[in-house]
Specification:
about 750 residues, alpha+beta, Multidrug efflux transporter AcrB transmembrane fold, Alpha-Beta Plaits, 3 domains, four-stranded antiparallel sheet
């Protein structure tokens, strides 16, 4: 019996496949299949619109968003910016000449630049070595050859970074007498933004054709390979359009663009591969092409939706963290996951309707699953379950041990390549100046009364005596070594501040100890401590506070979804534990390479800290991505288990056959994900490279060591207990269980 395109059942197939096609997923796919050309035309139109919208996206992206808005450091920064023109978004000009910082050419050029800067309405304040202040004296290099000009800028991160670029273009350059270079955090943000955008565009030009080539080899069909890549291409374009729309209501991080584009490509190809694999299986079982497409979408489409929900919920866990960078990544990730699922349920069936025959033209039906390499791997693990489990779990725990030494910090100009001018200026400031300009601790006092002045002077004197402090300046005078170095300041009835100069790096233990010592001093009035060391402390505190809630959300939501999928209590627990193992190994490797500097830090500059937001983003995204493979495998296991006699041997067979049937598509999906994330690894921005390596390592571990070896070994040890649920829960699970 043949099946027409309007059929809802299959005639020429085995009885287990002869079931009606129903449900919203099948109806969506059927609608796309009835009008495939219109479906693809709509996708193409959306792609064009997204491209037009995306042309303005670069101007709206943010390279910041690492700080929490309501912390002590942020409130101190607000006081300093509002009352004293000292903003956290600063840029630095270095002026160098043959006669050094005291030579007339450097002095004349520096004063001219300072005068013109003070006339700029986007400039909040300017500090130079020629101001006659104690703070200005620290703006000459220790060898006296370089002068620095500190410029505080008005506006948010985006406005300040654009202002810094405009000012750098205006004032930097060299002649026979003087060389002027520019750096600082605001200009670093600008360079990161534009470098990341360029890297992303270049990566897409490489990853798309490379993905096509690899898929053609893996699927043994150029047309079959083109369908997932076409979906991935639309996903990238759609991602840009979605992020452009999001940028009108919230800040969008430049890193979110790179990471979500890579994720969109990887997921779209991943989901398309799953459907194509099922489509081929139904054809091998004797189904007619159109019916095979419907059945493939009905079975694998539900796995795609389920996987997308799981990943979206994991990404939603990042919303527990208050940093704008993390929330931006979360929103962008959820948007691109949704888009990838929609493309899988519409464009992939439409493409299969048009090109399905050509997908199969040169392919012979697959061999029996028992003859596949993946079946043999699963049986190998099942024959030696204790040995396999001990070796793999021990190895993963060993790889994860460096994570115990993780230290969080904020990114600076060193995330840029070494040859970037901003990076070189930063190195000059760190290595050749008497104090760490980035390490200055600011003490903001929102209100000081005349009666509190004596206590404030004693407080400033006490700070100047702390180990590691070279001097204290501000509105209440200059102090050093426990003595007041300037005439007493006039009585203040309003805000005041102190700037604590130090040669200590704020990311070091000594720098953190100094911050603790400042906090430990008795406060004469309300005091808000700011600066990079305080911002680091605020971020670590925020992460520690939010992480338990995010972890609970991700673990509980994943557990409940897998419980509904499998009807088992043990399998969701197993999934959470194994995912945690692979993630801990990935994090340990990242700390070992990028924080501790082994293997040359993969070409990055090691600062001794891990950028604070990276573990959050990696945990939320890779936990969900790992669940992709878990959902695909469990769906297969469950199908085989339900069709069996449900004995211990049937459990082992269900696992082995499930891995054999899904192994090829999981391997192909993992390879494509590695290719997609390779664009991040090749980026010149260290943050992107760490994200790319982290995601790649987690995916490789998950798709190979975990799914092919550890899962069959652990499920062999558990036997029929894999499918156990408490008796009181069974009726409820049977009622609400998600069927595949």
């Amino acid at each position: 019996m043949t099946t027409s395109k309007a059929a809802v059942g299959i005639g020429a197939e085995s009885p287990e496949h002869a079931r009606p096609v129903h449900g919203i997923i099948a109806r969506i796919a059927a609608a796309a299949m009835r009008a495939p050309k219109i479906t693809l035309a709509i996708a193409a139109a959306l792609l064009v619109v997204s491209g037009a919208l995306g042309s303005t996206l670069t101007e709206k992206l943010s390279a910041g968003g690492f700080l929490e808005p309501d912390t002590e450091g942020s409130r101190a920064a607000a006081v300093l910016a509002e009352h004293f023109g000292l903003t956290s978004m600063q840029m630095v000009f270095t002026v160098t000449g043959p006669a050094g910082a005291t030579g007339q050419p450097v002095i004349d050029t520096g004063r001219r630049i300072a005068t013109e800067l003070r006339a700029e309405h986007d400039v909040a304040g300017v500090l130079t070595p020629w101001d006659g202040t104690a703070a200005g004296a620290a703006l000459r290099s220790t060898d006296g050859t370089i002068a620095a000009i500190i410029v505080s800028l008005h506006g948010n991160d985006n406005q300040a970074m654009n202002t810094s670029h405009r000012l750098a273009e205006r004032f930097t350059g060299s002649d026979s007498a003087v060389t002027v270079a520019a750096g600082g955090p605001a200009l670093a943000y600008y360079e990161v933004n534009h470098k990341a955008t360029e890297d992303g565009s270049r990566a897409e030009m490489i990853t798309l054709p490379l993905s096509l080539l690899l898929l053609a080899l893996l699927l043994r069909s150029a047309v079959a390979a083109a369908i997932p890549v076409a979906a991935g291409f639309v996903a990238i374009g759609g991602t840009v359009g979605l992020l452009t729309a999001l940028s009108t209501t919230t800040d969008v991080s430049v890193f979110a663009v790179n990471a979500s584009a890579a994720m969109g490509l990887a997921l779209s190809i991943d989901y398309a591969l799953l459907i194509i694999n099922r489509f081929r299986e139904y054809l091998d079982d004797g189904s007619e092409q159109h019916a095979a497409i419907l059945l493939a979408v009905q079975s694998s489409g539900r796995a795609v939706v389920f996987s997308g929900i799981t990943l979206a919920l994991s990404l939603l866990g990042a919303m527990f963290f208050p940093m704008g960078f993390v929330r931006s990544m979360s929103i962008a990730g959820i948007a691109v996951v949704t888009l990838s699922v929609v493309l899988a349920l519409t464009c992939v069936p439409a493409l299969l309707v048009l090109f399905g025959e050509r997908v199969e033209r040169r392919r012979n039906p697959g061999r029996p699953v028992q003859e596949s390499r993946f079946y043999r791997i699963a049986r190998f693990a099942q024959r030696r379950p204790i040995l396999v489990t001990i070796v793999i779990v021990g190895s993963l725990l060993g790889l994860g041990t460096p994570m115990l030494g993780i230290r969080f910090g904020l990114p600076d100009d060193r995330v840029l390549p070494r040859d970037a001018a901003v990076h070189q200026v930063g190195d000059t400031l760190r290595e050749r100046f008497p104090v760490q300009l980035a390490g200055t601790i600011y003490v903001a006092m929102p209100h000081v009364s005349p009666q509190q002045m004596a206590g404030v002077r004693e407080y400033a004197t006490a700070i100047s005596q702390l180990p590691g402090v070279t001097g204290v300046t501000g509105t209440v005078g200059n102090y050093g070594g426990g003595a007041q170095l300037s005439a007493p300041a006039e009585a203040i009835d309003g805000p005041a501040y102190l700037a604590v100069a130090t040669p200590l790096d704020p990311n070091t233990t000594a720098g953190k100890d100094l911050l603790g010592a400042v906090h430990a001093l008795p406060e004469p009035t309300e005091v808000l401590v700011g600066g990079l060391a305080q911002q680091n402390a605020d971020i670590v505190g925020g992460i520690r506070q939010a992480f338990p809630r995010a972890l609970a959300w991700i673990v509980i939501s994943s557990f409940l979804l897998l419980l509904l999928l499998t009807g088992s209590v043990l399998l969701p627990l197993k999934a959470v534990v194994l995912n945690s193992l692979s993630l801990s190994a990935s994090f340990g490797a990242l700390v070992w390479v990028f924080q501790q500097g082994h293997l040359g830090g993969f070409g990055t500059v090691t600062t001794g800290v891990t950028v604070c937001t990276i573990p959050i983003v990696l945990f939320c995204s890779t936990f969900g991505l790992s669940m992709d493979y878990e959902v695909f495998l469990l769906s297969r296991f469950k199908e085989e288990w339900q069709a069996s006699g449900r004995t211990r041997a049937d459990n082992d067979r269900a696992v082995a056959i499930g891995i054999a049937r899904s192994g090829r598509v999981i391997t192909a999906a993992a390879v494509v994900m590695v290719v997609a994330f390779s664009g991040l690894i090749a980026s010149g921005i260290a943050v992107n490279r760490v994200l790319g390596v982290g995601m790649t390592l987690a995916i490789l571990l998950d798709a190979t060591v975990i799914r092919l070896f550890l899962v069959p070994a652990v499920m062999r040890l558990a036997g029929t207990w894999n499918w156990w649920a408490p008796a009181p829960l069974r009726p409820l699970l049977a009622k609400f269980q998600l069927q595949h």
